[in-house]
Design brief:
About 60% of the residues lie in helices and about 0% in strands. It has 6 helices and no strands. The N and C termini lie far apart (about 45 Å). It has one domain. The protein is mainly alpha-helical.
């Protein structure tokens, strides 16, 4: 694939492809986290059955718009401001990545290069913004509802996230 490139160009191309992969993974993961967190929140406040019967078909941005006021006496996140605006962008970028059209891609590099061989995926800034949006959604929900523990979101200790998951992650097996 890189036969016509010199060693430095081939290495640069490889690094750009790796960056594109990590950017794509970060965007998809941030969108998954945002949706998983709001789903988890519903199961804590109501039940998995309530989520399945009434809210499961909503898009992630619809869930974040509808669920907080529904379960918190009308307290909600402002749809005209962050983090809901950022969530809308994150979902659009995620959808573009996940539902990309094969006709615009180069064989051997799906989702990475457009028909002219240049990177046509999301930017590093969009990935950073997406991760920041997911964290911000959780912080805003914690500000509305004391049931939500958002302390681990500001910790710089990687063990805090792991311990929190170990302690509270058993909910996923029941969904």
């Amino acid at each position: 694939m890189h036969d016509d490139l010199g060693p430095m160009d081939a290495r640069r191309f490889q690094l750009l492809e790796e960056q594109a992969l990590h950017v794509t993974e970060a965007i998809v993961f941030a969108a998954l986290c945002a949706e998983a967190y709001i789903n988890y929140y519903v199961t804590r406040k109501k039940s998995a059955k309530f989520l399945e019967n009434y809210l499961d078909k909503l898009s992630p941005d619809q869930k974040w718009y509808v669920i907080p006021p529904l379960l918190n006496n009308e307290q909600s996140l402002d749809p005209g401001r962050e983090p809901l605006q950022g969530l809308g962008q994150l979902i659009r970028v995620r959808n573009r990545v996940v539902h990309s059209k094969p006709s615009s891609q180069t064989i051997g590099a799906p989702g990475v290069r457009n028909h002219r061989g240049r990177y046509d995926g999301p930017s590093l800034k969009l990935a950073r913004d997406g991760v920041s949006t997911a964290r911000s959604l959780m912080r805003h929900l914690a500000a509305i509802d004391s049931l939500v523990d958002g302390g681990w979101l500001t910790s710089s200790n990687p063990g805090v996230l792991f311990m929190n998951f170990e302690e509270n992650g058993h909910w996923a097996s029941g969904l």
